[in-house]
Amino acid sequence: MEDCIFCKIIKNEIPCDHIYDDENFLAFLDIRPVNKGHVLIVPREHHTNLLDMPPELLEKYLPVIQKIAKATVKAVKADGCNVSINNGAASGQVIFHTHFHIIPRFENDGLKVWPRNEETFNFKEVGESIKKLL
User: Fold this and answer.
1) Which residues contact 44 (CB under 8 A, 6 or more apart)?
2) For site-directed labelling of 36, which of 72, 87, 101, 123 has its Cα 20 to 30 A away?
3) Model-level pTM?
4) What are phi and psi of 121, to 5 degrees?
5) How many domains does the chain have?
6) What is the greatest pairwise CA distance in the chain?
C-alpha cells in the first residue's frame, strides 16, 4: 500500500531500528514507546489487521512474537510484558497495517492497561451470540 508507513519501513524508504527481520516479518523499536524496549512486529505483506490475515501467515506470527517478547524482556530486564494488537479504529488502531506491540513492563511502572467498563450486560447472551458465529 503506497501511503502505509509500515510498508515504507519494510521497503527501507523510512529508517527504523530493526531488531528482527525474516521473509515474513519485520520488528523494530516504536518511535513513540510506551516503555523502554517497546517493539512493533509487522508482517511484510500488507494486511489491515488481524481479522483479515490469512491463517497460514498467522501460524507463523505467534512463534516470532514469542521469540521477540522473550528477548525484549530479558534485554531490558523487565518484570513482564504486554503483547497486544488493536483491530480497527474503535480499538485504537492508528496505522492500518497489522502489527503487534511488545511493551515491557516493570514493577510499579504506573502504566494502566484498561480501565474497567462499568456497563452491565448479559454474559450468557453475549457468549451465545459469539458461539453461534464460530
Assistant:
1) 10, 23, 24, 25, 26
2) 87
3) 0.90
4) -155, 165
5) 1
6) 49
Q: In a structure prediction context, what are the per-residue pLDDT tens digits for the chain, which is 134 residues long? A: 679 999 999 999 999 999 999 999 999 999 999 999 999 999 999 999 999 999 999 999 999 999 999 999 999 999 999 999 999 999 999 999 999 999 999 999 988 877 777 778 888 888 889 899 99
As annotated, the active-site residues are: 99
> Which three cell numbers, joined as nine digits, stand for 1?
500500500
- Name, in order, each residue with C-beta under 8 angstroms of 60's C-beta and a sequence gap of 6 or more: 24, 25
Task: Give the DSSP per-residue string, the chain.
Answer: -TT-HHHHHHTTSS---EEEE-SSEEEEE-SS-SSTT-EEEEESS--SSGGGS-HHHHHHHHHHHHHHHHHHHHHTT-SEEEEE---SGGGT--S-S--EEEEEE-TT------PPP-----HHHHHHHHHHT-
